[in-house]
Amino acid sequence: QVQLVESGGGLVQPGGSLRLSCKASGNIASIRLMGWYRQAPGKERDLIAQITSGGSIDYADSVKGRFTVDIDNAKKTMSLQMNSLKPEDTAVYYCRLLQLGIQFWGQGTQVTVSS
Known about the structure:
Number of helices: 0
Order of helices and strands: EEEEEEEEEEE
C-alpha cells in the first residue's frame, strides 16, 4: 500500500511564492509517474505538472515558467515550487502516484492567492 501526504499550502498574496511537498510512504515502485493536480471550486481536477521516474517533466501551459517540480528519491518526497502566484492559482492541490497500473492520491492541500 502507498500513502501520500501533501503539505505546504496556505494563503499568499498575488506575486508571492509557496512550496508544496508530497511525502510518499509504502511500496514505491522503481518505475512510476508522479504528478501535481489542482481543483478549483466548481471545476475539474487538472494536471499541472508531472515527473517520471526517469526524470522527464511536463508542465501545463498555465504554470510553465512559474512552477517547478522536483523529486528527492532518498526522502520519497515530491515538491512543487510555485512562484509569481496569481489569484487563478487558488485551488486544492493534490499529488498523484501511478505505478503498476494503480493510482494513489493524497488528501490535498488548499492554496489561496488573495490580497
